[in-house]
Amino acid sequence: MCTFFTYENGDHYFGRNMDINTSFGEKFIYLPKNYPLPWFSSRFSIFGVGILPKYPVYFDAVNEKGIAMALLNFENYGEMEEKKKHEIAMGEFILYLLSSCASLEEIREKTKEISLYDRFPLENGDSIPAHFHFIATQDGKSIVIEPAKDGIKIHDNPIGVLTNSPDFPAQMTNLQNYAHLQAENPKKIFGTIDMSSYGQGLGGFSLPGDATPMGRFVRAAYLKYHSQSQKDEKSNVVQIFRILDKVSMLRGEVVVNEKLSELGALDETTYSVCCNLDKKRYYIKTYDQPMIQQIDFSTIHGDEVKTWDIQSDFSFVDITPSP
Q: What parts of the chain have a pLDDT lower than 50?
């Protein structure tokens, strides 16, 4: 399970939690333009987080034109198209689109030519079944891409949020149930009775606090649109990670397989990222290393694929005074 949202406050950003019961050894991956791929040579360079079998498998990434994409689990909903076109593996879909498209309109056109099939390549050469839907964003606009039996569906996403199943239209319908939420305390009137508030936060009463995809969708949307911060880079990055923390998954909160008790059966937020799409900066922290790491990918060039490890071992600053 995962959560993704766009954020605009001066610059354009996205925030994303990767929620899963295992780590794939993900790393930062740079793919240059004009790099030979199975379908064509890349028109644009890409930078993001993923794994590197023969070609990059991106979990979330951005290309040099400022289009960001992410894949999110779409369990029990991601059906494969019955009438096949040019087939692309689920795990390679982000690479395919970001390497060839300069705009969301080009993505819309490109998806008309292809069918997705449910494979996710691994670094050991194997592949596993996978069902995803995708979000793409550029200049504050977003679309959701969902596989279906009768072809790929594309939805405009005015809210700029995506989690997991059910499909996006169902998530937006459910969001209407929470239109009453507000940051301010409600009026102190119950019928004709004037009532005093017993504390702050009553305007947000009934905001979902669970780990379900629908609960996280509502919570992320509410927090995004009620967020307030200064427009400098530090303030925005801190605010985005604060929102991600509010929709993150604690180890032990969700058991994936009730028959298993080991840690591998537990969903958790393995990593959280924030990306400034205008300044081309990626920020990341992991479950076991909450210190934010940053990489400025506007400075990265070259003709070969490059990777950078993400620090996952816990570290801290010892401020104990000397004797």
A: 261
